[in-house]
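Dear colleague,

Thank you for sharing your sequence with our group. We've completed the structure prediction you requested, and as agreed, I am returning the results in plain text so they can be pasted directly into your records. Please verify that the sequence below matches your submission; if there's any discrepancy, let me know and we will rerun it promptly.
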Amino acid sequence: MKPSIVLFGAALVFSLAVPRALAATSCADLANLKLDGVEISKAVAVDAGFMVPPPYPGASGIGPLPVHCRVDGVINRRKGAGDAEFGIGFAVALPAPGAWNGDLLMQGGGGGNGVVSYPAGASYAGDEIGLARGFAVASTDTGHKAKTGGFDFSFMRDQQAYLDFAYQANAEVAGIAKQIIAQYYAKSPGYSYFVGCSTGGREGMILSQRFPRVFNGIVSGDPAMRTGLSNVAIGRWIPIAYNQASPKDPSGRPQIEKFLTDNERTLFMNALMKQCDAKDGVADGMISDPMGCDFDPQVVACKSAQTEECIAPEKIAAIKKAFAGPKNSYGTQIYPGFLYDTGITMNGFAPGLLNLGAHGLFGPYPTATEIDVDKEALHVSDPLVEPASTNLSSFSAGGGKLIFFHGDSDPWFSPLDTLGYYKSLAETNGGPDKVAEWSRMFLVPGMAHCGGGPSLDHFDMLTAVVNWVEKGVAPDAVIATGKAFPGRSRPLCAYPRHAQYLGSGDTQDARNFRCQ
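Please find the predicted structure tokens below.
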């Protein structure tokens, strides 16, 4: 078996130069397809109506799916560190030949990956999933099998598995998927797209930076850009700031879950909404212009001798410090702050930053009241994983289009970090107007990490990027709806614009708003 890097190069070459004449193959025959370094484990026809089960309790299933052929396989199966088995698992769903739209859609992963999700293309595709639209859809576990859930990073002890997860696997699977597509339809895909959020958002950025010719259009949502530094912010900086003003238990340990009372959170949010809700022309429970929100928590701090309907000054100081983001001993910002937004008091898997509770995403919060940011941040950055490069000249020159979106209430990765990266593209790529010719950024009011929160989190970024790539129609706005506000629609506006009410008409209808 050839080393992964050889296969990887071959896959990329194929993605750029596909054979001119191929004979179509049946679904069953794809099980016998011979590709260098690839094991096809199954190729089965799936009847119309199949439902993909929910991936976890409380999630929604996907479907019903149309008739399709599902191909599963492994690239470069091998024994690695600790005698564990590794290999890049993948799946490709192929619509019936008469239903294929001629394109490839690849869906990004999440957390530490390690699972081959059903290749349905459901993420951020609006009301009709990618497979139902006729896309051939691919997915991958990026080179390892998760053993203990979605945040199992034990695979990192194996260097090649880490490299596959960091940046190699998605481009490699894309190359193999294109070969399978060409064999099945006797025609190569005309365009290739990638859509992902969180880890998938990071993967999209990596693909635009390291493999600029593999995908024509990329959608990168709430990207896990700098996980080490974001973990310093949400796992250390913010809780330690709160610890400084939290009540103590009998042993003197801060009780962070009691940092704010429910009444104090209500006072805080009422003051925030009074200041920023109606700046878009209508008080609707949404902050549509987060950059224009000039809220100062000091307005709810208790004055001299005041004890009711206010928040203690030391708590306000802790909140302001927490939301400002971590700085080192030289005063340098090592990770951006967070937005004051409508979802900062929400409950859930990743709770809002004003409602942390006693436990974080990966265990109890620290009980310390001081933090050495210099030490905490010293070794958390990893250039293999982090998508930091801003030179996208090859991607953009080749017609590539890159869409970012980020929830304003994301408590895990700050939307200001993604926005900072987007703005930094200007210096390397000819200024903001030139960048806007091939990349756009959308902030999503109220949305938590990749969805949820008091938000309109149902939108179709897939159509937006397809229309941009294939028709030259740049997405100035994308219409959003959501379960949090039944019957409401709003335009998500490309940065730096935001949705503003026209002053008349139904405030529930996006048609009565403009991007300004």
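Summary note from our side: The longest strand covers residues 68-79.

Kind regards,
the structure core
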